[in-house]
């Protein structure tokens, strides 16, 4: 398995991984926008044939740095195909993105939203990576489920 920076021509593969895993899907221009605007903080995992089996898509919050809110990264979406799970891929993808957010953009923390019922993702964020719940956002998702808004400080790493 090879992990590398996501390129603009990966967006089809990333979207197809997403379609198989998550109810939240995005239009192609959303993927392109991220890959082109913040090209150093999104990563993909590919198999030996170059097929994308996992990705993390991240951004730097536009308003961060102003209004006293420190510059921070935000993970929009992360997904690993079912047969490649529990191999540590998501952990590696997250760590690379966090490292790049901190070193390139001087991000002070990283945020994300996760469904309250998503045990695997919460295990990854909280247990493995050390994220904490900042707040619960009621009915955040289209189907009415609550989101946990989580944060991890990137200082003193
Ligand atoms: C969440 C997801 C990305 C994790 O990917 P992964 O590559 O399997 O995760 P990793 O192998 O890096 O796991 C790292 C740690 O996270 C935790 N974890 C991962 N999957 C878990 C599960 N099913 N149950 C409990 N904890 C889990 C474990 O602590 C794991 O460490 P361990 O394997 O040493 O116990 C994957 O399950 C997925 O794609 N799910 C569908 C999409 C999704 O829900 N994305 C998140 C949206 S916010």
UniProtKB/TrEMBL annotation:
Q: Which UniProt keywords apply?
A: Acyltransferase, Transferase
**Cited Gene3D superfamilies:** 3.40.630.30
Molecular-function annotations in GO: protein N-terminal-serine acetyltransferase activity; protein-N-terminal-glutamate acetyltransferase activity
Q: N-acetyltransferase domain: which residues?
A: 1-155
Under SUPFAM superfamilies, the record lists: Acyl-CoA N-acyltransferases (Nat) (SSF55729)
State the InterPro entries in the record: Acyl_CoA_acyltransferase, Ard1-like, GNAT_dom
List, alphabetically, the GO terms of the cellular component aspect: NatA complex
Q: Which family does it belong to?
A: Belongs to the acetyltransferase family. ARD1 subfamily.
How is this protein named in the record?
N-alpha-acetyltransferase daf-31
Give the species this sequence originates from. Answer: Hypsizygus marmoreus (White beech mushroom)
């Amino acid at each position: 398995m090879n992990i590398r920076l996501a390129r603009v021509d990966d967006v089809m593969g990333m979207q197809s991984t997403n379609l198989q895993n998550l109810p939240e899907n995005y239009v192609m221009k959303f993927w392109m926008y991220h890959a082109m605007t913040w090209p150093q903080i999104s990563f993909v995992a590919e198999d030996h044939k170059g097929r994308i089996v996992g990705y993390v898509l991240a951004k730097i919050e536009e308003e961060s740095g102003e209004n006293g809110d420190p510059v921070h990264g935000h993970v929009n979406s992360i997904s690993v195909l079912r047969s490649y799970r529990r191999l540590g891929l998501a952990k590696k993808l997250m760590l690379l993105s966090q490292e790049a957010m901190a070193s390139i953009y001087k991000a002070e923390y990283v945020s994300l939203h996760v469904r309250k019922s998503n045990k695997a993702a919460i295990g990854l964020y909280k247990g493995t990576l050390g994220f904490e719940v900042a707040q619960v956002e009621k009915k955040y998702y289209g189907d009415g489920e609550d989101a946990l808004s989580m944060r991890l400080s990137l200082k003193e790493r």
